[in-house]
Description:
Layout (H helix, E strand, L loop, with lengths): L1 H18 L6 E7 L14 E10 L5 E6 L4 H32 L26
Antiparallel strand pairs: 1-2, 2-3
Amino acid sequence: MSSIRSERQRLLRRVSGLARQALFGTLAESYRTCGQPGCRCHQGKKHGPHLYVSFRGEDGKTKGYYVPKALAERMGAGAAAWQELLSVLRELAERNRELLWASRGTNRARPPARRKRDGSSRVPTAKRL
């Protein structure tokens, strides 16, 4: 159980570090054509790459914004930190679950079977098709 606690502390420190730089969204490059008829972009060599961030807003709609070239590297690091933060939080949740079950005085990895109305805990086996 002490190894779970030390792993949990390591994950909490990692969360703290990632949270300082995490930026929500997904980076995407786009190439565009302009409105000038004789421009090279109409012959195949489009303007770009232009960096954009897209994300789902609170209203459920996809939103986004342009990222200036000067901020591209930091924005990329922030978006990568966000993805890693999600992964670390999943690991942390698993360690929290392990500690919760260990505090019950059992080392079982899974919760106990649900009890039937008659009080038994026997789980019926799945039928093969």
